[in-house]
Amino acid sequence: MGTAKEGRWERSLVDAYSRLECLAAECAIREQQTRPCTEELLFYKLTQVYVQEEEVRVRQKLKRKSSQRISRVMHETVGEFLSERLSGLAFQVIDGLLFVKREEQLIAVLKCIPDLGSYDTPSWNATIARFVKKYQKRYKLAPEQLLFVVCSLAKSLDAAHAKALTGIEVWSGTALTTPVYRDALQAYVCKCVEAMDAIPKPLQQLYFLSADIHPNALAYRLIQGETAYLPDRWLRPSISELIRFLESRL
After folding, report:
1. Most CB atoms closer than 10 Å: which of 17, 87, 165, 213?
2. What sign has the CA pseudo-torsion 12, 18, 24, 29?
3. 30 with 230: CB under 8 angstroms?
4. For residue range 85-104, what is the model confidence (pLDDT) as tens digits?
């Protein structure tokens, strides 16, 4: 890139990191005061992964971000995040999975999914089933050993399916992520999870973060200098519940 353009990009990147740190600081202040924000802290760290990947992409003159590198760093980030809260467990990233062990005994294997709309499958259940089959074959993992964390529902919602399950009538899946549908969306997510047969105990194996914004989209807004906020709506089962579930395995 030209010198002037490169200079502008460098400044926008520095500003993006600075603004992200400010969002994290605000989150930390809230945690010390009145409300926990475990989900916000993790979402901040995942957004940072995408900002860093964009830096790598531009510096190396790549056409697109590396999904493999993002997956590896994302799982490393989640492992570090959980290890700070679960001192009795060890976390190791292998081939896009986070292996969770207690004294060398395998407790669970966690897969982070940026969103459920990026896979060529007809339903959330089919997407999870595809992962289960893949890891059964590759690592001989039983379905009950697998845990999944979905970072965002961006691109993952189908209005017709939502109506069929809950009676919610909206003109598009995106509309379901707006604040007015907060309770309706959670009801839809619960019904989708309860109906899953790809994993034996979906309410203990599938966890969510943001109802709307994707960490990659937030990273883009920060780099572009656009207005950006950490999400403040979290779907259940969420990361706090995942931590409690893993605590129960200690």
Report:
1. 213
2. negative
3. no
4. 999 999 999 989 999 999 98
Could you please report the per-residue DSSP string of 16-31? HHHHHHHHHHHHHHHH
What integer is the mean pLDDT of 144-149? 97
Residues in a beta bridge with 24: none
Give the integer Cα–Cα distance in Å for 237 and 155.
19
Residue written as token pair 């604040």: 179
Q: Which amino acid does the sequence have at 124?
A: W
